[in-house]
Amino acid sequence: MNSRQRRGVILLLLSVLCAFGAFAGVLSVIGDVNSKVGPEVSAYRTKVDVAPYTSLKESQFEKISLPKRWLSANAITDLSEIDGKIAVTQLHKGSLLQSDMIVRRPALQPGEQEIAIMIDAATGVAGKITPGSKVNIFATFSGENDKTAPISKIIVSNAKVLDVGKLTSLEPARGERSRSNEAVPITFGLNTLDAQRVAYAESFAEHVRLALIAPGSDTSLRPGERTYEIGKDK
């Protein structure tokens, strides 16, 4: 083998070594990318805006794929998790669906019944009462005559809210001012006696108001707290 042939063999070996080096470099880059990205998993995002406190439907979401390590721990990867649940806030189009955006719709317990009443938006807890909330229901009654003082009563304590409807404009009753009022239909889960109290108050009370109870609060009423008269206030 002459010197020219030896140089050719050496150059060929160097080319092979360079090729192996380049291939190893590509594999290293791919491995590094895979280690940073990782496997992809399914997630879901909203296709449309979803109003708060409304039931969720599969048609409102679309399936997407994302690297698993990029998803938050509370991202929903199985759409069956929305069954029987509602949105707790406004879900905007394109939002990634997460478990803290939804809650299970409150359900009736044995012995309870649904009753819905219209609550004046000005005298309710506007925007703060949601399905699952607990409230005290207040009713104010005018006196039967000039000698009887008006009273305020907690007609139902610790009432469970099942559903909150949409804000509705109510036409004024005959003889009232022309300005229409806005009210919200609110559905409660109550036993028979409490449901009767609510129905009575809606029919005969001057006003019905809701007081939102903070989670974890003591909801028991002490003697004398259910009824209030201004003349007995000390």
Task: Describe the protein's architecture and organization.
21% of the residues lie in helices and 30% in strands. The model has no long low-confidence stretch (mean pLDDT 79). Strands 5, 6, 7, 8, 9, 10 and 11 form a 7-stranded antiparallel beta sheet that branches. Strands 1-2 form a two-stranded antiparallel ribbon. Strands 3-4 form a two-stranded antiparallel sheet. By secondary structure, the chain is α+β, with helices and mostly antiparallel strands. It is rod-shaped. The protein has helices at residues 3-37, 192-204; strands at 40-46, 61-67, 85-87, 102-104, 113-120, 134-141, 151-164, 168-170, 181-190, 207-212, 227-228. The chain contains 2 helices and 11 strands, in the order αβββββββββαββ. The chain has 2 domains: 40-104, Type Iii Antifreeze Protein Isoform Hplc 12 (Alpha-Beta Complex), CATH 3.90.1210; 113-232. The relative contact order is 0.13.
